[in-house]
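Thread: Newbie trying to understand structure tokens

Hi all, I'm a second-year student working on a class project, and my supervisor (Dr. K.) asked me to get a predicted structure for one chain before our next meeting. I've only ever worked with sequences, so writing a 3D structure as a token string is new to me. If someone could post the tokens and maybe explain what I'm looking at, I'd be very grateful. Here's the chain:
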Amino acid sequence: MRRTFLMNLALAGAVGVTLSLGSFGRAQDGGAKTPASSGEWIQLFNGKDLTGWTPKIRYHNLGENFANTFRVENGALKVGYEGYSEFNETFGHLFYKDVFSNYILRIEYRFVGEQVRGGPGWALRNSGVMLHGERPETMTKDQDFPASIEVQFLGGDGKNPRTTCNLCTPGTNVVMNEKLILNHCTNSKSKTFHGDQWVTAEIEVRGNEVIRHKVNGELVLEYAKPQLDDRDAHAKELAEKAGTKMLSSGTISLQSESHPIEFRKVELLNLDK
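---
Reply by user tm_fold:
Sure, no problem. This is what the structure looks like when written as tokens:
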């Protein structure tokens, strides 16, 4: 993905922001914490429907699942574009209802089919999951991506090398080797996955300390101190509202970026005590 944040975005009301966490929301009490203490994985996707998830698609109201972009078929959460005549930069995100801080997220995904007409070239076999994100209520109607940390999923073109589980930073920055990274995207060291094969991404998130990306069990990228980028007007406003630019928790969302993708597992192990 690319950085296309509009610099004059207005904050639509920071729902669930808390200063003590230095992020966009408060870790939820109740259901998510009980399985964590017993070492059980929480199934964020139940394999049947979109319970617990809310779409926010660019140019559409929160909760409007334009053209049935996100749906469940044959036990898989699918992102598809059969109802689109053209993509027109209608980037979308499917937000999970809860906010998390310390966890391991495991996702099984695969790219399928052809990119929708009008999808940007860089978005071919391109999707991802957004972590430490803002709440969808704080996004404007025409906002393309939430301020967040993106674990970028990329599929091969059948010929050329192309890593997956890269890092992209819409409205954010991170630290690597004690240096603030201002590049929008940073490649991992994963191998390339061509075709429609299933890939397992596992992301370990430790609040504001460290985030690690694994692909099929192999560590491919690690960085620290996720934070809002005060060069971006919307992110700067979020930081001012929160009282800090450091990100310790936030939302999780799955992307729609113009190429069909399927998810057959989205599960989380909460590491909070």
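A couple of things are worth pointing out once you decode it. The radius of gyration is 17 Å. The first strand starts at residue 42 and ends at 43. Feel free to ask follow-ups in this thread.
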